[in-house]
Design a protein that fits this description.
The complex is a heterodimer. Chain A is α/β, with parallel strands linked by helices. Chain A has 15 helices and 15 strands. The radius of gyration of chain A is 24 Å and the shape is elongated. Helix content of chain B is about 70%, strand content about 5%. Chain B contains 11 helices and 4 strands; from the N terminus they run ααααβββααααβααα. A two-stranded antiparallel sheet of chain B has the order 1-4. A two-stranded antiparallel ribbon of chain B has the order 2-3. The longest helix of chain B has 29 residues. The chains are: A alpha/beta, B mainly alpha. At the A-B interface, strand 8, helix 9 and helix 10 of A face helix 1, strand 1, strand 3 and helix 10 of B.
Chain lengths: ~450, ~290
């Protein structure tokens, strides 16, 4: 008897196990949004924090109104492990959409990993709002095959070409302040220090051409360390030998910390401007033991600086919740609100309708006024850059505080764009000491 | 530029030598390829960060505690996981690789993947023939030389050293001569862990701590050890400086390809091995070992 009962019990148990998760009780009206990023790093952490803040605010206010019916947001966290493995990133995206059932995805950081993530999202015809990778070509995919790549939009940052523009303007400002302040004559000299990564390749070529052509400065050399290099002593010694006044950085990896630390500790007489993602984080000061003073980087947020009417409140709330200043990856906050806007304005969750709505949206977010580039441009669905749209900032570490220093009026002015709270860029003490010594 | 190459090459070589000699010692004595060797370097580096920065202990005390903790972990690792399979070389490699991954994940869970900075023992720099070298780098170089001299003295001037060398030459004969081979292997493993930990402690302030920091030096020290001749401590020492100088030369002479410095160093290793397959100081006879 028992022999007959046991198999029946086993089969019944298996059936229950299979059926119960499918039932899951009454889920209610839920919109599932996947948040994908390198969750073991600040970048991914801020993807999650930004999205969580937006989702909680929206849910607390009643949720998203879809044609008269209220839906709440359910976020699904996916660790892409993209810093080390683009394959892992693609697999995480696949699981997020096909297993976890994400209807929309926000996040992504490294270009090398965002490319395969996009391919998966496009296969699944799922809207993917990028909040991390800057490479221009990510938005050029839709030029050749709009029907396949129309689901991809970049919310932040603006693309690498525009990052070049901002870097050049910041470099111009720093060069002019140094020339005026230190009485330097002749052309300023620049060393380019760019990590070996796909997103940096185009920028290096642009700098090599435009630094002399647009700013009248001389490029004395280009150094390309690994994005994960832990010691830049040799590079910095060679840069000092080159006689550079300024170092123009393109660094998104952990190399940004030893670079800034050794630059300060060895008192290399060069000012550093450009992109150093590590310098956008609050932990930078501690990680460099204070030697990262004067490090200047393009940035999105700075405490007390209102890029839009929503910025200050967003930063304050973020700091209250997480005790950190948001990095640009927290732009997932704006991405979630964008989805809310288009879903509510169209009253549907039909993907094609939402894509059309996103293409037409004009939304003031916490980081910028967001308008996507048209399908007739070279970078469709890229966030629009320029005065009145997304401009970004440059911040400089000044005695332990991250201060916004650009766009500023006066030296390095950009069509009159500036924001309250922006202060003057400072020449590093080590540079002053070097050029004013007898 | 030449001064820069010389100074930076010496500094880089000194750091590599500290790591490579321990790895070589283990191979020379136990014929084991311990792929978790650079994890002890990582553990010590994180240890000093945890004790000094998180717990606020004085730096010297943090260094001593970190060294002790890492050495104990090294010895336990050997006793619990390696000792019983040490005759099976491939198994040892696989187990130590798995252990390395465990240590890595342990660091990720404990400290996240965020790059961190450990405090310097001494801040500032010294200008040597026009080249700026941080005091911490000089300390690293000095410690590397001092430790390597101590290792040489221990191996050549003490009874323990004689026992280690005897075990390296032939463990069975050494056993027959009354040497406790198992204990010698344990001591050697402890010494290797100490060498890696010392490297981690003195080098940590000069670089970024992150949970994958063990991988890159592992590749380089394997190249160094093969280049110098497997099991030859002297070969590892010289190989470390060759690889260090190649890396620095690439940065100075080919700045746009600085990220290729590791690849060039490995290329030099391949070229030397093609000319001298046993490495620079390869073992032709077992009695030459160490």
């Amino acid at each position: 008897m028992l022999r007959k009962v046991i198999p029946v019990l086993v089969v019944c148990s298996l059936l229950v196990l299979l059926i119960v998760p499918g039932c899951g009780g009454e889920e209610g009206n839920v919109i599932k949004i996947g948040v994908i990023g390198p969750m073991q790093y600040v970048q991914g952490e801020h993807h999650w924090y930004g999205a969580t803040m937006a989702a909680e605010e929206i849910n607390d206010a009643g949720g998203i109104d879809v044609d008269g019916e209220m839906y709440t947001i359910e976020l699904i966290k996916a660790d892409s492990n993209e810093m080390t493995s683009p394959t892992d990133a693609a697999a995480a995206m696949e699981k997020l959409i096909t297993v976890d059932g994400a209807q929309f995805v926000v996040g992504g950081f490294r270009t090398e990993s965002v490319f395969p993530m996009i391919e998966v999202a496009m296969d699944e015809e799922t809207i993917f709002l990028g909040c991390g990778a800057a490479t221009e070509s990510l938005c050029q995919l839709a030029v050749d095959d709009y029907d396949r790549y129309k689901y991809w939009f970049r919310v932040t940052p603006f693309n690498s070409t525009k990052l070049v523009s901002n870097s050049l303007m910041t470099l111009g400002m720093a060069g002019a302040i140094m020339q005026q302040g230190l009485g330097l004559e002749g052309p300023m000299t620049v060393a380019i220090l760019a990590e070996q990564a796909e997103w940096a390749d185009g920028m290096v070529a642009a700098y090599q051409a435009y630094v002399p052509a647009m700013l009248g400065m001389e490029v004395v050399g280009t150094w390309r360390p690994s994005a994960t290099a832990t010691d830049l002593n040799a590079e910095l010694t060679a840069i000092e030998d080159s006689g550079a006044h300024l170092i123009l950085t393109i660094l998104s990896g952990p190399v940004g910390i030893p670079y800034a630390r050794q630059l300060g500790e060895l008192e290399i007489p060069c000012a550093s401007v450009g992109i150093n993602v590590e310098a956008q984080k609050d932990g930078f000061w501690d990680a460099t033991e204070g030697h990262g003073n004067y490090e200047t980087t393009l940035n999105t947020y700075a405490e007390g600086v209102a890029l839009t009417s929503k910025t200050v409140a967003f930063i304050e709330e973020f700091q209250d919740r997480y005790d950190q200043t948001p990095t640009y990856n927290a732009g997932t906050y704006d991405a979630i609100y964008l989805l809310k806007e288009v879903i509510e304005s169209t009253g549907t969750m039909d993907t094609d309708t939402l894509i059309t709505a996103l293409e037409e949206i004009d939304y003031v977010g916490a980081g910028a006024r967001i308008v996507f580039m048209g399908t007739d441009t070279t970078t469709p669905h890229d966030v629009t850059y320029g005065p009145g749209y997304s401009t970004g900032l440059a911040t400089q570490w000044q005695d332990g505080e991250m201060k916004a220093v650009w766009p500023n009026l006066g030296v390095g002015e950009w069509e009159g764009v500036t924001y309250e709270g922006v202060v003057m860029w400072q020449i590093p003490d080590r540079v002053i000491a070097y050029y004013t010594q007898d | 530029m030449v001064e820069g190459i010389i100074i930076q090459g010496l500094i880089k070589g000194g750091t590599y030598a500290l790591l490579a000699v321990g790895f070589s010692l283990i191979f020379g004595v136990a014929r084991m390829i311990n792929l978790s060797h650079t994890c002890f370097y990582m553990l010590a580096a994180y240890g000093i960060y945890a004790f000094a920065k998180m717990l606020g202990m004085p730096l010297i005390a943090a260094a001593v505690l970190s060294l002790l903790a890492t050495t104990i972990i090294g010895i336990l690792t050997y006793r619990l996981f390696i000792d019983r399979v040490r005759e099976h070389h491939v198994t040892v490699m696989l187990i130590t690789l798995a252990l390395a991954m465990v240590f890595q994940e342990w660091m990720i869970i404990s400290f996240t993947s965020e790059p961190l900075g450990a405090p310097s023992f001494i801040s500032g720099y010294w200008e040597i023939i026009g080249v700026k070298v941080s005091y911490q780098h000089l300390l690293t170089f000095g410690v590397a030389l001092a430790v390597l001299i101590c290792v040489w003295a221990l191996l050549s001037k003490t009874r323990l050293g004689v026992a280690i060398r005897a075990t390296a030459q032939d463990s069975e004969i050494a056993n027959l001569m009354g040497i406790n081979v198992r204990r010698i292997l344990l001591v050697t493993m402890g010494m290797a862990a100490v060498l890696a930990a010392v490297a981690g402690i003195v080098v940590a302030p000069t670089l970024t701590l992150e949970p994958r920091m063990w991988t890159s030096p592992l590749v380089m020290i394997m190249a160094i050890v093969v280049l110098g001749g497997l099991g030859s401590v002297k070969g590892s020492f010289i190989g470390a400086f060759i690889i260090g100088f190649v890396e620095v030369l690439v940065v100075f002479l080919m700045p746009g390809g600085a990220f290729l410095k590791g690849a060039f160093a490995l290329l030099v290793m391949v070229i030397i091995l093609l000319v001298r397959p046993e490495g620079l100081f390869g073992i032709a006879f077992e009695e030459e070992r160490l």
